[in-house]
Amino acid sequence: MVLIAATVCTKSGKALVSRQFVEMTKARIEGLLAAFPKLMTSGRQHTFVETESVRYVYQPLDKLYMLLITTKASNILEDLETLRLFSRVVPEYCTQLTEAEILNQAFNLLFAFDEIVALGYRESVNLAQVRSFVEMDSHEEKIYQAVRQTQEREAANRMRERAKELQRERLEAAKRGQPPRSQMSFGSGFGSSSVSSASVEPIAEKLPTTPARETRPVTRSAMKLGSRGTDADSFVSRLRSEGDIAATPVGPAVTTGGASGARSDQPALNQKDVHLRFEERLNLIAGRDGDIQSFELSGLLTLRISNEQFGRIHVHVDNKDTRSLQLQTHPNVDKESFRSQGVIGLKQAQRPFPLHSDVGVLKWRLTGANDDKLAPLSVNCWPSEGANGSCDVNIEYELEQDHLTLTDVNINIPLPSGNTQVVVHQWEGSYTQKGRSLIWSIPVVNAQQKTGSLEFTVTPAIPNDFFPLTVTWTSDTSLALLTATKVTQAEDGSPVDYSQEISFHPDKYEIV
Q1: What SS3 class is residue 297?
Q2: Which residues is 398 bridged to in the sheet?
Q3: What is the pLDDT of residues 70-127, one digit of tens each?
Q4: What domains are defined for the chain?
Q5: From CA 86, how far away is CA 130, in angstroms rounded?
Q6: How far apart are CA 310 and CA 497, in angstroms?
Q7: CA pair distance 208, 210, nearest whole angstrom
Q8: What pTM, to 2 d.p., does this model score?
């Protein structure tokens, strides 16, 4: 090993932040640091000093020292280059080079040190890459929170679908003049709280998917059936508050080993012993002219192993994305193997992956602005003022990435406050008015059905009333062109059967 430790210390040898890259006792590193001030000579102009066993390479930082402890066999020129990078990293995270500020930023400094040196050897990184890697938060807590939020969201979607099924049963029973079966079963299924038939608002009827030229008035009173202020969402919220949410969600899509990207309706309960999950989140803000003001895509690949015989495996990942995608592997993953071959495996080959837990092994990030090619879906809203204070609004969408398939696309359009009248002239999919919003729903957007439009008139209104628009969807295809090609045993390279799940959704998608 070349580099033993990196330390920010005082001139008296007191360590403020110290990172050891080889195994050693606390007493040993404290002894090395205590010997450092005694070796310093006043007026000395050198940047290193040697003892019988180690070499100290240092650089002053005001009243502190950036100190590297190396073996005497290390290359002094490389040590000095590494020292310069360490000395630039410290001011990057510390606004003032004082003891209090160093202690306050200790965790960020340690993370940055780990990106510069691995197992005693210098990594081929620069300051910009170190800053980017540290900002990507490689904590297990982030992984746990991401998995938990996904489970809660999928459970809420399942309950919403169940609410729609119960509503359809109630409507069919009402047509036949019979009480719905679901109404009789609520008392025993959800405790003592009773749910009346009027507590669930009917879902807006599905309209033809082909454009129809007709004038259909939409008012708040016309779109509200049932008691005021209750709808399917409030029903789902009531079920959630009573705690009746399944702990294990059903994934949107599971594909089996070898057929990467192929879809199947196989539930998550039938996962293979090796299960991969690709999850992507998107934050995008676009202007009214279609310009991208803010874009950030973050992705996470988690691995779950349920059988100990598959603990030592390699996951082969193919990256066909030509954009500036930032990739980061888990600290325990062999970075060099991933960079050269696209193989995810542990640094210590004899150690297995953890069993029965979702382990984040790869992260990716894509950012940018003023690049219209990054957006997966473009939405254009054209409001124009008409006669008598009315406003004619034309909205169209277009899929920009043909490899994507977006489902349950909802475009939420704000409406002006007050007593307004909405008349819809042309649409694809379906629409419904909820409060001060018009929600336009499209079941599927893909390469075969990539465009659609909505036209309506609002009286009274002005163009600014219809912004910002928000867009939501779910998808079992990913925006980044990252795919798992195969999974093999680490010892002999034999193939391993695996399942795969892909999820892509927006955290924030606004047209302002």
Answers
A1: strand
A2: 378, 451
A3: 888 888 888 888 888 888 888 888 888 888 888 888 888 888 888 888 877 778 888 8
A4: 3-135 (3.30.450.60), 142-241 (no CATH), 255-372+479-511 (2.60.40.1170), 377-475 (2.60.40.1170)
A5: 11
A6: 10
A7: 5
A8: 0.50
